[in-house]
Amino acid sequence: MPGQATILPGGIYPPVPTFFDPDQQLDLLTLQRHLRRLETSGVAGYVLMGSNGEAVHLDNEERARLLAASYETAVRSADNPLPLIAGCGAQSTRQTIAYCEQAAHYGASFALILPPSYYPRRMDDVALRAHYWAVADASPLPILIYNMPSSAAGINLSVDLICALAEHPNIVGVKDSSSDIVKLMQLVARAEPTFRIFAGSADILLPALVGGAIGAVAALANVFPRTVCRLQALFEQEKIEEARILQAQLIPANSAVTSKYGVAGLKAALEHCVGYGGVPRLPLQPLTQHEQQALLSTLTPLKAREVSEDEG
Question: Which residues bind pyruvate (predicted)?
């Protein structure tokens, strides 16, 4: 039952957390609850098993169960089926291809591929091009490149490399989490219009859209999906001043759930704002009381706005 989508729509894609129960086992009921909540919020689709999904903490059986539960909720049983993007990056080309095949089998529409980084000094453009090209040749799913230096031992894919990879017919876009607007604009200028370019964070969503991106994979959209989607809608309606004000309001909360507190911050934000979230899988630690208080101070203004967007 592979996903049938071939063109990835623009818009906002939450990188969905993987939820765990108090015994550190998969909590698929909470995952499905979260997907149902997001379905009517305006998001364009979902990213599974990315950095915020703690992909590195999952074994192969858990990946299969997570994919199956997500497909059941977000595609097969959904009133509004949306694309599933599955994180399939691994440290070997062989394993990356295997993850792509697994994701296709369980109904994903696209595969998101982080570069291998265990041997970063050997991952030059020649090695990385060979890796991505081989994966794209073999993958039953279209490929999105995932450029995130902070999760790949500092490997920052160059504009030249990304544009060369964009020539492969099965490599259809990039999520760029380098926060480099100049790079993003260079990609827009050089890649074909059909190559889908997404920002990797809500804190640069407006400048990324101005620069030519078609959306974002944004962790904050798990917590405040309507508000993040509203920012893109304001841009598309050419209400730039309103968009600028909203962008500034998003930055403190976005920083808290990404660069400052990471996965633990995202889950704590969900717990506070929507009543579920839980804790990350060990060795990641939950936030301390002091960290929770600091996080909550950034969330309060957006929490009220999200309720307003929901009621509107």
Answer: 217
217 is in an annotated binding site: yes
Which stretches of the chain are assigned E, i.e. beta strand? 11-13, 46-48, 84-87, 110-113, 143-147, 171-176, 196-199, 215-217
**Does residue 171 form part of some domain?**
yes
The pLDDT tens digits of the residues spanning 231-270 come to 999 999 999 999 999 999 999 999 999 999 999 999 999 9
The DSSP annotation for 248-267 comes to: HHHHHHHHIIIIITHHHHHH
What is the total count of domains within the chain? 1
Q: How far is CA 5 from the centre of its chain?
A: 18
Phi and psi at residue 20, in whole multiples of 5°? Answer: -130, 150
Cβ–Cβ < 8 Å for 96, 137: no
Residues 6+ apart with CB under 8 A from 125: 158, 160, 161
pLDDT tens digit sequence for 99-150? 999 999 999 999 999 999 999 999 999 999 999 999 999 999 999 999 999 9
- Comparing CA positions, the residue from 153, 172, 160, 158 lying closest to residue 113 is 172
CA 282 to chain centre: 21
* Distance spanning both ends of the chain, measured CA to CA: 37
pTM of the model: 0.95
CATH code of the domain covering residue 61: 3.20.20.70
Burial state string for 20-51 with b = 16 or more CB within 10 A and e = fewer than 16: beeeeebbbebbbbbbeebbebbbbbbbbbbb
Q: Which residues pair with 13 in a beta bridge?
A: 217
Phi and psi torsions of 91, nearest 5°: -80, -15
Any domain includes 251: no
User: Is 60 exposed, middle or buried, given 0-12, 13-18 or 19+ CB atoms closer than 10 A?
Assistant: exposed
- Supply the range of the domain harboring residue 156: 11-240
Which are the catalytic amino acids? 146, 175
